[in-house]
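Below is just one:
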Amino acid sequence: MSLRRRIVRERVLQALYAFELSQEPIETIIKNIAGDLQKQPESFSFAKQLILKVIDDNKELDSLIRQRVEHWEFNRLAIIDKIILRMSICELLYFEDIPPKVTINEAIEIARSFSTDKSDKFVNGVLDSILEDLKKENRIKKTGRGLVDTHANKKPKS
């Protein structure tokens, strides 16, 4: 049985935060922060994939965030909020087996636990609007039952 994904996501947040602040090699950070997850290969694999994908696609993820927070100075956003948003957008775009609703709910709960009093509402609002944009652009590719809102992907009957 793998660890609950919330715990794994919290580890991912911690690793990305450490990377953001220290700029140490990411492999060292993964070993130090998420190394104990190796006993659970599925959890470790998910954590490592998410960490590396967020780092690799950082510019694109930040660009999507910037489009939604135009009234804020991007550099003044709480680092934890930025990282939670990056992780969540990455899951929405690249982790086909995770339902968007799960990603957003997890982001809200993690923001509640690790960030400011209003972060949960902020993260929810930004992710909801980014999800809508991604759906309109047909960039959400989810597979399996219950992974996408059926009304958003139904084709009109002819």
